[in-house]
């Protein structure tokens, strides 16, 4: 039997993985980063079971090419995402750790 806890955790993980692979490589500059953060949030908040999302991009590691932009890399992401399935809420995050974009389970709560 698959529980609501299992579903909330699965949905959170699949959403982070999709977000990462969908946006890596997107052209971005220090001037467009805030717009891209908002676009990512607005795109993913619409998905089933996503209750909240916060995206921040590290502008300090953006290295502009001769055309004036960078390509979004996994190390630029700082994401917090929350899913909810019935009465179970799951919080996950994507942050750089040891020079690698790590995805972690932060919390799983079952409300009564």
Tell me what the structure shows.
The chain is of the alpha+beta class and 112 residues long. The protein has one domain: 2-Layer Sandwich (Pantoate--beta-alanine Ligase, Chain: A,domain 2), CATH 3.30.1300. The chain contains two helices and six strands. It has helices at 4-23, 33-45, and strands at residues 27-28, 50-57, 70-71, 77-85, 88-97, 100-110. Strands 2-4-5-6 form a four-stranded antiparallel sheet. Strands 1-3 form a two-stranded antiparallel sheet. The model has no long low-confidence stretch (mean pLDDT 96).
Which descriptors would you attach to this protein?
112 residues; two-stranded antiparallel ribbon; 2 helices; four-stranded antiparallel β-sheet; elongated; single chain; alpha+beta
Instruction: Indicate the structural class.
Output: alpha+beta
How many β strands by DSSP?
Answer: 6
Whole-number radius of gyration? 15 Å
- The CATH class turns out to be Alpha Beta
The neighbouring-strand order within the major sheet is: 2-4-5-6
* Mean pLDDT over the residues: 96
What percent of residues are in strands? 35-45%
Classify the fold: give the CATH topology.
Pantoate--beta-alanine Ligase, Chain: A,domain 2
